[in-house]
């Protein structure tokens, strides 16, 4: 007998769900297109090392998890307890009534935002425009905090290897034929490479001006994600010496360029080793059945330039965006982020903060904490 859309559909909000449900939740996240590792329970374990606590909202019916959200909460001085939901909620695409699951999850998120935390920020999952719309119906507003990138570049891995090669820019195509002759090679890494990754990330952080992840944080990330196939490392070498390492995360059919670092010596830069690492990661993703390769977030100015209909002006892009563009990915937008700040007084205070330099620094701190726990370094006086 068919089950009605409301029958037995329940919502549970808990920091520690039943272990069986958590296993089912992780399986749902891993298998749902458009999901991300930031919704896996292993990610909550990782973020606990930077002071965050998880809150799971799970929609179940007759013991089956049909959808849910893994929120991460933390107390921040002055602002109080905040929560953010990256790339969620997730809904089982085979659910017989996804609209009802979404409505109940969004109602639960509203309750969290009004009664458990001072501020709740939500970046819906890829393809989750309906999530944004439903949350707006529940009193959320569009958010400018930017807890996650609003756009990225993605490579369609259903293309043939020849098509992927043709889509890369001419300089990269030439380098693919030169690396071997110059002693450049790329190998798949493992946990023993984490200390070197931490060292290289530290070098990159010093150059770009952010506080780097610690070696212990990176080790926890690898341990929590790699065992189930959600993280892979690639190391670039020159004559056997490691000069670049990228850490990539995979979930929902997408391999995502998550982090990386490289030795900024003249040799590593001259031989374009970071491009060799990224190119090999793209090839590996295709070989291992991923649908998309995500090159990572891009700035709005870059997005507009790529969508302008004219040949892109690379001089208008940041160095990081210029690096990503040469691999031939297509611009990809994520659904608009939303936020719920229930207190009118706090909302007005934040609106005033956005109008001042000190206020913008405070909001940048919130964004940095949400994105990765790394705080941008203040410029030297």
UniProtKB/TrEMBL annotation:
Keywords: Acyltransferase, Cell shape, Cell wall biogenesis/degradation, Peptidoglycan synthesis, Transferase
Tagged with keyword Transferase: yes
Molecular function GO labels: aminoacyltransferase activity
GO BP annotations listed: cell wall organization; peptidoglycan biosynthetic process; regulation of cell shape
InterPro entries with a match to the protein in the record: Acyl_CoA_acyltransferase (IPR016181), BioF2-like_GNAT_dom (IPR038740), FEMABX (IPR003447), PG_Glycine_Bridge_Synth (IPR050644)
BioF2-like acetyltransferase domain span: 168-298
Signal peptide per UniProt: none
Family, per entry: Belongs to the FemABX family.
PANTHER family, alphabetized: LIPID II:GLYCINE GLYCYLTRANSFERASE (PTHR36174)
Protein name (Swiss-Prot/TrEMBL): Peptidoglycan bridge formation glycyltransferase FemA/FemB family protein
